[in-house]
C-alpha cells in the first residue's frame, strides 16, 4: 500500500523537487517491488515459524527465533506475538545471546588497528566549511589505520572546510592537494572533539601546507538529500 502514497508525496513536494515528478513511475515500481519482496519473505517466514512451533512444543528455542530474525527479517516482537497466540513461549535469553554473537562477529570483521598519532603541531581544529569549500591548511597530526579493506590514514588539520558527519548529514569528501599530488579524502568524522579526515594516503610531505578542497558537487547533493529527509 505504500506505493499509493507516492502520488501524494509528489503532489506535495514535486514543486521543490522536480526529480520526483520525472521519476514518479519508476519510484512507484520500485516501491511496489519492495513491497512484493517483503510480503514474499513474510509468507516464507510465517510458514517457517509455524513449522518451528510444531517442532518445539511449548517453547521456541532462541536460536530458532534468531533464524527467523536473521534470515527472514522477522521482528522478534512479531515472533513473540505469533507464538503467544498459540500458547508458545520464546526463549528470549537464547535469542539475545545469538544476537550478541552476531554483533561480535560483525565487529570482528570490521575491526581496525590504529597506530599512534604522529604529532606535527598543536592547537584545536577550526571548521571553515560554512564560508569556504577550499583553503590552505597544515596537518596537526596523522596516523595509519589498518583494516580489512587495507591501509588508510587519519589526518587532522589546523583548519578545514570539510564538514564532519553529524546531525544526520554524511561527512564531506574531497582532496588534500600538495603541489601536483592529490590525496583523496574518503570521509570526514568528528571524533573526540577532533575533525578527522579519512584519506587513502598521506601528502608527499605532511609537514608542509596543503590545500583542503571539498567535493562541492557532492556537498550540494548531500545537503539537498539531508533537507529532503527532514521534509519527509
What's the number of helices?
7
CATH architecture of the largest domain: Beta Barrel
Query: CATH top level of the largest domain?
Result: Mainly Beta
Element pattern in H and E? HHHEHHEHEEEEEEEEEEEH
First and last CA, distance: 18 Å
Q: Which band does the percent of strand residues land in?
A: 25-35%
What does the oligomeric state look like here? single chain
- What fold name goes in the CATH topology slot of the largest domain? Elongation Factor Tu (Ef-tu), domain 3
Main beta sheet strand tally, sense and closure: 9 strands, antiparallel
Are there runs of 5+ residues with pLDDT below 50, and where? 225-232
The average pLDDT value, as a whole number, equals 86
- Give the % helix: 40-55%
From the spread of the alpha carbons, the general shape counts as flat
Our count of domains comes out at 2
List keywords for this structure.
232 residues; alpha+beta; 2 domains; nine-stranded antiparallel β-sheet; disordered C terminus
Helix/strand layout:
Elements: H1 6-13, H2 18-22, H3 24-56, E1 59-60, H4 62-72, H5 76-85, E2 89-90, H6 92-109, E3 113-114, E4 118-119, E5 126-127, E6 134-137, E7 139-147, E8 150-157, E9 159-160, E10 174-178, E11 181-191, E12 194-199, E13 210-214, H7 216-231
Parallel strand pairs: 1-2, 5-9
Antiparallel strand pairs: 3-7, 4-7, 6-13, 7-8, 8-12, 10-11, 10-13, 11-12
Amino acid at each position: 500500500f505504500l506505493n499509493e502514497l507516492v502520488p501524494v508525496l509528489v503532489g506535495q513536494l514535486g514543486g521543490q523537487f522536480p526529480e520526483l515528478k520525472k521519476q514518479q513511475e519508476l519510484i512507484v515500481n520500485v516501491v511496489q517491488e519492495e513491497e512484493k519482496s517483503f510480503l514474499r519473505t513474510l509468507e516464507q517466514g510465517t510458514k517457517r515459524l509455524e513449522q518451528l512451533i510444531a517442532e518445539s512444543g511449548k517453547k521456541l528455542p532462541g536460536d530458532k527465533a534468531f533464524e527467523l530474525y536473521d534470515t527472514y527479517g522477522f521482528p522478534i516482537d512479531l515472533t513473540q506475538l505469533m507464538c503467544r497466540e498459540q500458547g508458545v513461549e520464546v526463549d528470549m535469553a537464547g535469542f539475545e545471546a545469538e544476537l550478541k554473537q552476531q554483533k561480535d562477529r560483525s565487529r570482528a570483521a570490521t575491526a581496525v588497528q590504529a597506530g599512534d598519532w604522529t604529532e606535527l603541531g598543536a592547537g584545536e581544529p577550526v571548521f571553515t566549511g560554512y564560508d569556504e569549500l577550499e583553503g590552505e591548511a597544515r596537518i596537526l597530526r596523522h596516523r595509519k589505520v589498518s583494516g580489512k579493506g587495507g591501509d588508510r590514514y587519519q589526518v587532522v588539520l589546523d583548519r578545514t572546510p570539510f564538514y564532519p558527519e553529524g546531525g544526520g548529514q554524511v561527512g564531506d569528501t574531497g582532496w588534500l592537494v600538495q603541489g601536483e599530488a592529490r590525496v583523496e579524502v574518503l570521509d570526514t568524522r568528528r571524533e573526540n572533539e577532533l575533525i578527522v579526515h579519512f584519506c587513502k594516503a598521506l601528502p608527499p610531505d605532511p609537514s608542509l601546507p596543503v590545500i583542503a578542497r571539498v567535493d562541492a558537487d557532492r556537498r550540494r547533493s548531500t545537503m539537498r538529500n539531508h533537507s529532503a529527509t527532514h521534509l519527509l
